Amino acid sequence: MKKRILYGEANYPAIVRENGYFVDKTAYIQKLETVKNAVFLRPRRFGKSLLCTMLESYYSVLYKENFEEFFGHTWIGKNPTPLHNAFLVLHLDFSTIETGDLEVMEKSFDHTVNLALQSLVNRNTCFLDDKPLLNLENSSVSNLKSVINKIQDNKLPLLYVIIDEYDNFANQLITAHKDHLYKQLMADDGFLKTFFKLLKEGRKTGAIHNVFITGVLPVTMDELASGFNIATFITLEPDFENMIGFTQSEVDLLLDDIYRDYDINPDTRNEVQDVIKNQYNGYHFINPEGEAVYNSTILQYFLSWFTKYSTMPKHLTDMNLKTDILWIKRITGSNPDLTEGFVTQLTTQNSIDYDDTLLTQKFNMSQFFEKGFFPISFFYLGMLTRKNDFALTLPNLNMRRIFVEYFNELYRIDVSTGYGDMMQYFVKTLDLKPLFAGYWQEYVSQLPEAVFSQVNENFYRTTFYELCSRYLSRWFTWNVERSYPKGRTDLEFVGKFNECFAGIRMVIEFKYFSNAAFKKFNISIENFTMISEDTEQIAGYVEGLKKEYPEAKVSQHVIYCFGNGGFKVFDI
Length: 572
What we know:
15 strands, Rossmann fold, PDDEXK_9, AAA family ATPase, AAA-ATPase-like_dom
């Protein structure tokens, strides 16, 4: 039976039993054993929940007989640690906790933890056979204490506690600006801190062997510090940078397997690799000069379609990624002026400065909505990544599209009406000049005057790409800043290998002159002629492209944008 891409599957045993593709990250299990009370933060949809179920499968006494089935094919299966299948595992998921008033939250929290404790007792009757041990009417702290006491009194296997999405319900309070509820939640005598104090006590007595916690933002853990000041933050430790997310070598091996298993034409490989690298790669959580990682879940969205149909999906952005716009609104929405400045900066510059000391330390809710913390918040949410030691950047085309969409929304730019005819004409003729003219007439004409003081070639390139991707994704993919031996192209239209424009590549170089700079030419736009260095520059890129894709039908174009005064397109 062929292996399958099990998109969205976070249950490790299910992936093994349903013959799913699995990128082996089990070597990190051994590394994690050197860390006590680990807290590991990564963006949503990056594979944290799968990591948690993998740890549960490895450490739970329940799966002792399944060790070979679950891990025999993995690195850790060939190099097992003495602690495998040695613990009672309490696996908690805080993403299901309701966020009403404090009473609703406490009731939901107790219900969530108590159900997990009840499952632990029911599934481990050989150790925890005293059924009256739990009372679901009691608080979760009371019931957890009963389990801890039972373990201590009877010298049972120790408890290993896994908490997935520890900050989920607290983050909802923060982004909804429910400050009063958040403060109540974080009170020293509140149910949440009391729960973490008990975990600390369990670690102290030895009844709890270890605690592993995942989340997205460090805000809540900072507030909980007085109750759980034994946490080890491994989020920004180099040893764990690639614990989730896929490296390029891991993706290469995965594609090797997929192309072999599904007998896909190997001639499509380079094009597919270009697309997924542009769309889903680019995350640098620690070292900006190190190897970037892919968002593994969003990559699987692409590969799930690819393995079913041997073609690329029409739309390369997973619809689940659209929810990131809601996060942008929640974080920046309290200050419209700051929001416009922040989003415009990223749309025009694709870069924003940040304070590294803020990134590497815990921070509290009072800082969360401050302007200086916008870049930090978006780094942890996975919308920005390290560009260098001083600036953050949008990691890939997926995120660029999302920020342009929000830019359009902020400035009320219509991208849904008035574009059909020009797009249809382009599909018939592949004539770039009327396509860009339509973009200038329909899109650029809507921009407010204030924006033109900030626009540049990156702005025109990115917004033009985003608009075209809305209408032309059936036939084309796009490269932005694709590297060749003699430099990076600004924008490429790439005909999809399974569509009528297969093999076609349109290489576009953007050049920008402000209104003031253009005046110095002392010439009209109509009489402006192409600058020879620009011709040489794009020719150098195309030389490298043709070496990689000798069969490609390549056209070359230079687009000059003159402030808000106009443009000129040259076909070389």
